[in-house]
Write a structure and sequence with these properties.
about 900 residues, alpha+beta, nine-stranded mixed β-sheet, six-stranded mixed barrel, 28 helices, 26 strands, about 55% helix
Amino acid sequence: MRKRTTTTKPAAVEAAVVKPPAAKFAGTRSTAARERSGTAAREARGVRRGSRRASAFLARRSLATHRRAWAAVIVATGAAAALIGAFAFVVGSLLVAVPPVQRYAGADAVVAADQKVSYTAKPWGGEPQTATAYLPERARLDRSVLAVVAGADGVAKAVADDSVPVATGDGRPAVGRSWPSAALTPYELAEGRAPRDATEVVLDGTLAADGPAPGGRIVLRADGTARTYTVSGIARAGHNGDGPPAVFFTEPRLTALAGHPGRIDAIGVIAEPGVPPKALRDAIGAVLPEDAGVAGSDRGVRVLTGAERGEAEQVDALGGRGDRLALLGSIGGTVLMVALLVIASTLSQAIHQRSGELALLRAVGASPRQLRSAIGREAGRVSAVAALLGGLGAVPLGLAMRSLLTTGTLPLPVPWWLPPAAALAGGLLVALPARPVAMLAARSITRLRPAAALGAATADEPSGPGRFRTVAGVVLAFAGVSSAGVATTQSGQAAGAAASGAALSLVIAVALLGPRVARIALGALGRPLRRAGGVSGFLAERAASAHTRRLAAAFTPIVLVVAFVCVQLAAGPTLERASDRQASAALRADLVATGGAAGLPAGAARAVREAPGVTAATGVLRSAVVLADREAGEPVLTRLPVLGVEARGLSGILDPRVTAGDLDRLTGRDAVAVGADRAKSLGVGPGDRVALRLGDGTRVEPRVVAVYGHELGLGEFLFPREALAGHVSAARDQVVLIRTGAGASSGADPVAAVRKALAPYGGGVAVRAATPDDIRIAPPVPDEDNAMIVIGVGVIGGFALLAVVTTLALITLGRRGEFRLLRTVGTGRRQLRRMLVLETGLVTVAGLVIGTAVAAVPLTAFAVAVAGTAPYLPPAHYGVIAGAVALAAAAGTLVPGASGGRFVLGRGAR
């Protein structure tokens, strides 16, 4: 019998062979699962597509149904986009602006001292930071640098360039230059020849158009009394500049007139043929010594080529650009906050007026996602249209603002990329927040359950602002009042910044706490409204009481425009009024002599002192210093205007109200008098030293000899004239202050005596009665500051007024159902018309009162801190504000009530 044998199979083979049915069933189950998951995914995608289609349908229908309300939103949002884009346009133009090249148009490079200074300090608990500022006066070079530059590779000619103010015999201003520097413009001789000695000059063609010909004579005043010169030639430039005409002297004569023989204003360089600007710059920079700048300064020397050459012509142009950029940045930040506040307010109001409609849609089954998506789509489409229209409007508005700010010394360019970039910036900044703001405004309805939403569709509007808004509003109100309190302890820019922050915080607090503020306003104005209006007054008061949130939304933009415009308009007059009062109190001179644009040389004051009847006279030299200080721990460089005076007989001409020290010691180059507030902030008194930079950057530490109180009128520092004379662009007195007395009592005419004493100084010299403006440190507002006022008040105030119109129009259009019901129950057209008028008056008065109160808090803090007085706003200015607000409120309420709501005021209404 044969024995059966068995073999053992591997496990893998056994699994494959023995269990084929199980593997088959497992694959079948996984396939079925995949099919079920795919079906579920397709169903989910189908649900999402259906939800999106439903949201899109709701958005389209709602846009068509509420087109008037959305039109008001488009107007407000589009205006915000245009305003933001216009500011972006102007700021972009300022950032790329440079002074024009005129005087050095014929030079390939200009070597000049660096006009920028810096100050590095470590803030509290932070890393070291550096503040920079431009010098207000020209920093000069050592004359030895001329030979060094002339020996650099690629330099064909290096020319020293100085300038002095000159006046002709009839008072016309001109600028004196050396004849070798004519090649830097370039000027070419059209007639005659170059000057050969100190008695000859070459005239600019524009100056000689109606003047002497070559060989004739001309009277000129430069460093002293007027002198007669022989005209040796007439020169004409290859281009027309905006500056004063030139008078060319010989180089030795010009150096003597300039008064600083060891230093020069700048060096003009003409390159050898074929030398590119970069190679020329590198070659000159390689040979320049590190200490080529002005003595006592820590700055170096710059080699300017191309468009940079204009910086050597207008030394303070970039400093003015920085000041305007800082001011525009401050205003622009306020504009952005105001624009976002207006956009959020109008969008929220448009959504809030549809609360019943949204609640009904939620009650009949619309999902929260569908409602949020529909509202987001509506807001997105509306904001896209507004952004497009606002972007288009930003360009002409930006061009108009640019025309107000451009000057001859700093024209504002418009590069090709600026208009589209500004339009895009304005459009994006209003389009991006629109969708989330609208969805957030509808959150209180979309998050309700359907059953609760059915009750919300017919419920009264909530009377309170909500917990979050209440807490945020109280916090901002406290922050605003605290910021105003901080402003009272600060001075200068710190006080202004704290006051501006207080105003903005309080305005936003009013917007958040609107319903509560509205109830307070109704408590004060409701009873007079009922008594004055009869039935219409009763209806107006009840409507406002039942809808305090709506009333708050109506007066919030009025509060915004009143508070903003009052702060902007009152700050300047408050300071000017205080400055005028102090200047008037300080002025003891009764006459003043002026020399026109060219000023008067130092000898004029000496000549006046010797005139009969004159008891005292001093020249007034205006300049500026740079003070390094800290504000809130941050390093700050502040440019402060100062006066240079002569101590001899000063007490008979000026009374700064000295509180410590002796003003008679204000002599020499190592003395300074300091205003009381500045002395307190610096912690100095008589005998202490103050670290300053003079106008040309020279570091000095003069000793304090006196402390005085009239610093708003006379500035924060008073210097001896001789301490400033060597550090200004032109050492010419703007005025000579004169005190008469003894001669007048003896029968002599002091005015005639002064005119006789000044007769040798030629024409253009005038003698008149002295006024506070002659010594006030801040002279009448210049055109650039007026432009800032127009931009800050006119443009932004106009936008805020437009927001008033659109918000009130939106509210009025949303009350159609309420007006229909009133007409149905028997209210007459005249009663409704009167009710609307009374409501408009209520909103206007409430907005004016609250806005004035909001503005009064920061203004009082600012006025007390800076001027020590109460704030002042000319009554005529406030009358214009009130009238503009009343007209805007009437346009936003009565016009829509007469056109969009024909059932209210139309004769065919039932």
